[in-house]
Each structure stands twice: as structure tokens, then as C-alpha cells.
Amino acid sequence: MTSTPSWAVFSRPPISSMEANLYYYGLYSRPVLVARTSTTLWKPPVCPPGYPSIKWVRTVGNHPLGNIWEGNLALQIHKILESRGVKWTSTDVARIGLVEEFLPPVIVWIGVQPGTVSREDGHAVAMACKGLLVENQIYNVEVEIRESVVTQYSGPKFLKPAPPPDPTAELREPLTSALGLSICSTRTLWAEGTGDTNLKLYLVTARHVVIPSDSDNKVQADKFPSQRLNKIALFSPASFADYLKRIGIAIRRKESIVKCVKRFRHEAFERLRPGETNSEEAILQQTYQDNTLKAAGNEIEALGGLREEVAKTWSDLDNRIIGHLSFSPVLKYGAGEEGYTQDFALIEIDQSKIEIGSFTGNAIDLGTMLVPNQFTRMMFPHPEDSHSFIYPIDRLFRIRGTIPDREMRVSPSVVQTLYHLMYVTMMRRARL
User: Fold this and answer.
1) Assigned domain for 38 exists
2) What is the distance between the alpha carbons of residues 349 and 198, in angstroms, rounded to a whole number?
3) Residue 138 and residue 251 share a domain
4) Do 15 and 134 fall within a single domain?
5) pLDDT (tens digit per residue) in 326-380
6) How many domains does the chain have?
7) Phi then psi for 26, rounded to 5 degrees?
8) Domain boundary among 130, 147, 164
9) I want to staple 358 with a disulfide (CB 3.0 to 4.6 A). Which of 160, 217, 332, 353 is the partner?
10) Residue 132 in domain
11) Residue 278: inside a domain, yes or no?
């Protein structure tokens, strides 16, 4: 006897108005639930105290769904929604559950425009999406549909990091989502700092970078769209002007190479005696000069294209807005047992700025200023040092793990020998 899969039947009554309004209690936006495929019974609040269970949203992490979601599955979900006339606003994958759950269930989270989908129609759509998951052998993921309004900022997306041979790689890096973005608040354009990204996409920076020093020292939390007054932009106006200058300087340096090679070629040709123009040495010199001129010409063209793209699509401050201040605790000195300074802020990144296929969060672009063996030698200068470091072929050094507080101050290997130290890499952009 074969059992009918849970996704193929409607095994519970439609959700009630109370469940629809309280199901996501605890989330900042408190969206209204339209439908869900899970058969877990929702428990209404019991008086007293009358409060529903609190939920939270977490990233998925390592899960089989991640391997196929961006490949084709998301597009198939979109086709189901569009074939049924659903006015959808977003499709996401997240873990959503009660705060006491260590590993909340994975949910395909679909947003629809408020008031456009009935609970009955929503349930049919959710079950169709659940069936698609099962067809792709994803059995432990549920589908939830909620009312959602997505407000996207205008302007270009983050650029994809350039491959190592690309002459624009170093100068494209500030416009990618690699760690170390140069940011400022649109309310304090004179104050600037850096931020590092994580999914659900948040950027971590210092509070003093995005909140004026003369503001009240209180918790900042923008819970609703109407409260999102503190927008965060990539580059302050001064830094953006410097960035364009850097590209211009790089072009002029390549142009100077072209001039030098042409001058050397002209002077070398004049010094050649009759019959030496076809000598092996002369041919080698000409081949080298030809290759140098061709490479420099290609680099000038690529850098010129980058400068034109940046000037056209990123010059307007509104186009450089990448998100808004989501949360920041009070600025506090001597916080915790160790007496550290509590000074941080979370910036929620606008999802329209991210191209999932090229997202490079939690990675440092090591740049092109140092070739791999130079970087490795600087990190491990002593021959007796053993290490497992392998320079990444795409230059993107993925960040993983944490360093305990004690090791931040004193490396445990220092006890063994004065030559075994903890080396720290700092990425810093030069200012003109």
C-alpha cells in the first residue's frame, strides 16, 4: 500500500484570520500569511498572557535546495506563479521558525501584492510549488505565501569581480560586493567608513559611520518602510570623485607605456645597421614591443569602458544607494567583561542591488597588486612555517571561522617560538 505524499492533499482547513495576522509574529514587518503547505498545527495565543510564539528568519546554510535554486528551480517557481496570474513581488529561500528552534525549517517564501490572492487560491499555488520541489527530490522544504511590498532603489547592481587577466580587475573591486565596501550615510556625506556583507543580506559597519555623532545615543531600529530615513550609499561624493580619478590615472599610465615603447622602437630602429633588421635579436625585440603595445591598447580600451560605465551609471548619489540602516545598539564604552567599545550597525542591503550568480559576500578580493607567490610569501615569510593556504584562482579569499579574543591579543604559537606569529592582512585603498 502506498501512502499519499503530504503535499498532494489538503489535510487541514484553510488558515483563519487570526493565524494569517499572527503567524509571523516577531518579524519586523509582520507580514500577513496567505497560505502554507506545512501541516503543523498553528497554536493561537492563550490568555493570559495572550502572546503568540515569536518567530525569526535565518539563512539556509548548506542545503540541497541551494544547488538547484538559482540554477533553474527559481525560474520554474516564477512560471507557476505567472501561469496562475499571481502578482508576486519576491521569491526567497530562508529558514523561518520559532526563536527556540536551533535549526528552523527551510521555506520557499513567496511574496504577493496585498489583497490580490485569496487564501484558497494561495493554497493551490503553494501546493503546486510544493509539488515542483518534490519532483526535484526536495522533500523537507515547505512553501509559504505572504503579502509583501518590495521597494527597490534605482540604479545599477553591484559589479561581478573581474577574472584575473582583466585589466580592470583592481579598479572594479570597489563596485563589487566583496568585503570592504566604502560607504556613507546620505544624511552624513562627510563621514565615511567600510562595511562587510552577509546573507540575509546585511552589511556590518561602525555606528559612528552612519549615525551623526550629535544624535541621541539610543537604539536605532527601522522596523517599517516609512521609518527608513537613513539610507546608505556606496562612496561619499568626495570618494567617488577620487575613484574616477584613480581610473583616469590608470589610463594615463597605460598611455605612457605606449608612448615609451613607440619611442624605444623608433630609436632602436635608427641604431640598427643595414642587414640587422631581420636578425634574431631584432625580431625578438619587435615581437616583445608588439605584444606590449597590443596589451596596453586593450587595457586602455577596457579601462576607458569602465570609466564611461562608472560615470554614466554611478555618478548620481541616488544610484549609489545600496540599502538602509536596519539596527544599531547604543554606542557604549567598556561593554562586556572585556571592556570593549560597542560600536556597530547593521545595514540591510536592497536585494535589487545583488545579482545572485555574482554575489561575493564574505570574501576579500586580494587584488592584482601582488602576484600569488608574493602574497603567500608575505603571509608566511619564514621557510619553517607550515601552512595549508592556497591562493584562490579567482582572487576571492573566503572568510570562515572566528579568532578567539585571547588569540587576537596573543597567538598561542608565540609560546613555541618567536618566529611563529599570527599574520593579519589589511586591505586598504589608496587615496589621491
Assistant:
1) yes
2) 9
3) no
4) yes
5) 888 888 888 877 777 888 888 888 877 776 556 666 777 887 887 888 888 777 7
6) 2
7) 110, -25
8) 147
9) 160
10) yes
11) yes
Provide the residue count of the chain: 432
Q: What is the pLDDT of residues 193-216, one digit of tens each?
A: 555 444 457 788 888 888 877 677
